Amino acid sequence: MTEAYIRDLRPRDRNKILHAKVYRAWIHRDLPDTTNKGFRAILLDKQQTLANPTSLSFSRFFTSFDDIEDVGFPDHYFDFASYNKLPDRVVDPKEKPKKLYPVLTDYIGCYIRSGDKGKVGNPNRTQSVQRKVEIQNLNRNSLELTLWGDLAEKFNKERIDALERPIIIAVSSCRVSRYNNNLQLQSTVATYFYINPRIPQLEEYRAE
């Protein structure tokens, strides 16, 4: 077996050893449908490889896992999109054959306010929890982030509102949509939010 970085992997590669960090992990669901569709994870190696066209499938018969020390791996890695680039990431369901789908987006901005969590859907069929969060960039462009399911539950509004301003929020792996011609972010099962994350952009926002 030979060691490899994620970016070097190609389809049908075998007998490779990866040193990687499980950056995010989740049970896959197509929200608001809460049906469990399997386990998914995003791996981060020491080259900070996230954007990659290759997906890995692990088999219990051919794959083994060993714990390694969390040394040399970054705490966070984002590929933030600016507000003016978001329109290019809006995916119309009618245009699926024309665009990669879904286009997942990382975004950063100042936390302005959030609403209370609320239930949506039919209680006799499928129902989920959502919460609205307003995010504003340094150009004072605001947009609405909708957190679904467990993320809406985990968002501690009272604790976050009590923090010293400005409060910086980074969100990962969101879908971009439009409603009444306004840009919006929707969480996916791969999304997570980070409050005042230790990244270089944090001080830039605080300075402004």
TrEMBL record:
It comes from Artemisia annua (Sweet wormwood). This is Nucleic acid-binding, OB-fold protein. SUPFAM superfamilies: Nucleic acid-binding proteins. The lineage of its organism: Eukaryota, Viridiplantae, Streptophyta, Embryophyta, Tracheophyta. Gene3D superfamilies: Nucleic acid-binding proteins. InterPro entries: NA-bd_OB-fold.
